[in-house]
Amino acid sequence: MTTPGDHGRTVPGCEVPGTSAIVEDMTEESIRNHIAVVGGGIAGLTAAYYAAKLGARVTLLEGAAGIGGKLQVSEIAGLPVDEGAEAMLARRPEGLELVRELGLGDRLIFPGTTSAAIWSRGALHDLPAGHVMGVPADLVALARSRVLSPAGLARVPLDLIRPETPRGEDVSVAGFLGARVGSEVVDRLVEPLLGGVYAGRGEELSFEATMPGLAAASRSRRSVIAAARAMREAAPAEAGPVFTTLTGGLGALPQALAEKFTELGGAVRTGAMVRELHRTPGGWRLSVGPTRHPEYLDADAVIVAVPAKPAQRLLKDEVPVAAAELGRIEYASMAIITLAYAGTAFPKWPRRSGYLVPAVEAGAVKAVTFSTTKWPNLAEGSPGTVVVRCSIGRHGDQHLLQRPDDELKAMAMTELARTSGVIELPIDARVTRWGGGLPQYMVGHLDRIARIRAAVAGRPGLAYDGLGIPACVATARVAAARVLEHLNGQGESKRADAPVSERRR
């Protein structure tokens, strides 16, 4: 990373082993397209990796001390347990393809069980079979689950005979599904499931953005139950496991990706906060580091792979319309409390993968995962130990998350005592806080993304329309390809016409 006229100087910070300093001279290496990637999470790392594979010279800039974003792993009770995301969808191919491309295919593992429950009206109930994100397709299975009250259950089949519900271009999840199958289905089934993905609230989240398959299917059907049934019938009979992870934790993926990236000649810079981004005659100039003593990096193109708020700051001068729209995207904060217990703490060994807690139950914990049951390989590392992950925090719960670690641990332990009869203290515990970690796909989100895309048209970058690892991987691959296509389409004439100080170096 260089300042004008100071070729070869590097920005202080950490580098992934194997990364060498960038030598600024007119060699074959230095005249390749230079792409700067802002953000060292899974999206930024993937974009950098694929851009390097396509032949670009790539510098990845991460403001934090390390890479990985929400994919982090550390030990608890001597076992490697993820601090953030613990699994990715196995039914979208992009994540699995990347893992295998990195040579990690032999480390893929699948859940021992995905049997989950809902805490509802004072007891744990199995999730009813035959549902689509909580919307029932099998009314007999719904009745057997006993999740709903008799009155709530009686309300559900009215969806089959009610007239069509007008909804325009978009509507909230609670607004549409509540009108179709009743508020209890929303409160006790749909919202807990959505809460595990978005940490959001049904009255705010977009039906079109958070449940796109069901939203599309229900456009051509009066009944949302009929739409759910059609989706279930169209699904492959042998679709395979829904989720997968890696032995040693999903948090091992970013480091493996960074190592492959650097093998391709890419440079990873941590502790390198990008503060400004400006267009130049020959490309882009990034201001990096302290405000008073910035370093500058010139690049032909930039991929922005950071959350909406920092992206807004970077784009406010060059793409103000996109920046304004990004500034309207809200985020939810959350905390994950990981507890390790001796197996004797549980009157009965946990047989489910976990359970969800509806917001209407007024509990602090919204979800519990029995990690050593869900991932049997984890239990093999310490037989007799039960590892539990408790998730706390929904959109708007900032006051709850401001409490000290010890209070959050106490909330999680109280939850397990209430639902699982845990009678001992944990042998180890960890609190991981993710401030502003989950974007909220509010009503109108898809239109907002369309406006952002239109505003940055002709200036390739990373779009804000993917949640989950496979979606981030897919979006990052597209961003890398579009950036190279854009640069290669410019030809040599523009490069030759640019001032010497701004030419590709």
Which terms summarize this structure?
disordered C terminus; Polyamine Oxidase, Chain A, domain 2; alpha+beta; 505 residues; globular; 4-stranded parallel beta sheet; FAD/NAD(P)-binding domain; 3 domains; disordered N terminus; protoporphyrinogen ix oxidase, domain 3
Write the layout of secondary structure elements.
Elements: E1 34-38, H1 42-53, E2 57-62, E3 73-76, E4 79-82, E5 88-89, H2 93-101, E6 108-109, E7 116-120, E8 123-126, E9 131-132, E10 135-136, H3 139-145, H4 150-155, H5 173-181, H6 183-198, H7 207-210, H8 212-219, H9 224-234, E11 243-246, H10 253-263, E12 267-270, E13 274-280, E14 283-288, E15 295-299, E16 301-304, H11 308-315, H12 320-327, E17 331-342, E18 354-356, E19 365-370, H13 371-374, H14 376-380, E20 385-392, H15 398-401, H16 405-420, E21 428-439, H17 445-455, H18 469-497
Parallel strand pairs: 1-2, 1-16, 2-12, 7-18
Antiparallel strand pairs: 3-4, 5-11, 6-11, 7-8, 9-10, 13-14, 14-15, 17-20, 17-21, 18-19, 19-20
Helix pairs in contact: 1-10, 1-18, 2-18, 5-6, 8-9, 11-12, 12-17
